[in-house]
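Narrative progress, year one. The postdoctoral researcher (J.K.) led the effort to move from monomer predictions toward full complexes, under supervision of the PI. The following entry was the first complex the group processed end to end, covering 394 residues in total.
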Amino acid sequence: MATVSTLGYALLCTLHRGPLTGYDIVRRMRKPIGYYWTAQQSQIYPELARLSTAGLIEHEAEAGPGPRQRKTHRLTDAGREALAAWLVEPPAPRAPRDEAVLKTYALAAADPVRMRRFYLAEAETYQRRLDDFRAQHAELLSRHGDDVRHPQFGAYATLELALASFPARIAWYRWLAEKMTELGNLRNTPTDPPTPD
Amino acid sequence: MATVSTLGYALLCTLHRGPLTGYDIVRRMRKPIGYYWTAQQSQIYPELARLSTAGLIEHEAEAGPGPRQRKTHRLTDAGREALAAWLVEPPAPRAPRDEAVLKTYALAAADPVRMRRFYLAEAETYQRRLDDFRAQHAELLSRHGDDVRHPQFGAYATLELALASFPARIAWYRWLAEKMTELGNLRNTPTDPPTPD
DNA sequence: GACAGCTATGTCAAAGTTGACATAGCTATG
DNA sequence: CATAGCTATGTCAACTTTGACATAGCTGTC
């Protein structure tokens, strides 16, 4: 049996609630899963073909708007089983890559005034994203409630995590912005010598 | 001027506090930056060569333990300037990839009993990591305090974020584990006896 | 004295990911 | 009625990342 990449499973995930076209998946990769998993168009179409060959999905084709046929993909029984088996598997530890945290590690090499602006801009970006998530969360809640049995519960739960963890991050950015102000003041008024090691 | 990849800047970041060998960087890519940025050995050595060609780092070579020379790399003035300029630049929005959240999105396709075990295992993994970070945080704090002016402040700040955001994640996993128990009961699936928590 | 593990550098093939390009009909805006 | 944007599918070259391999001396353990 052909091994399926994580990208492949991600596509099976998007199909778990019903059939979609490749283009639908492209759009789903933005909200609300998009914040936790992304894939480009150029990855999605070839991967759908691979999943099809592996017998995990199947499709119906109709005449499409462009020069090609429009294909609606759905999970096969084998696909649903493969997905269910993968879901309960402990995730392989992935390398997280967070540019803002990396930059903070090398904070000592930055200009405090400009770095303060950096942190304030980041705080705003995350605040906007949080507001967006809050709106989506409220909408899902009002439409379906928070019943575990509802098929939308998974999407709702991902938003719960965002709502619980974004405020900590925003507060962290604001704290660093304040520290940068402090550092600027300390450096502009050279009264005390810097602390010895 | 040759463009530097994010990996290149990550290496400049590791060198911002003083000279290191490639092997030192390999180890630094674990704690404490490691949780927020990772690179493999096979990426690091070629990238160091590229940075050297670009004039952003330089090295001294001595006889090494193996068949090759041991090289100690340091930032050049140009390297320090390039780093300082990059630090204040707004980060390019990166695609976050979080397998556990992706799986949660497709929760409806999973077996609740096994999924509950999955969430409990994840909660434990994160709890252990949090304990580790707490220890590192306490050590840095006792050794250098939380003075912004101290060169270690950047490393300390990255740990602050971990300490502030991990508990939310652990609570999220526990909440989902509970929801899975609830779902199992609702579905009348006779399973394990209730575990003592 | 064998063997594992650490220091230390590097290469290589394979896989995954990005960003740009190509095609074409339909719809809404000015 | 031009043009911009959306639906919808797909390809391609370039770049990034992973995992395995190779070399060799030194140190500590059984």
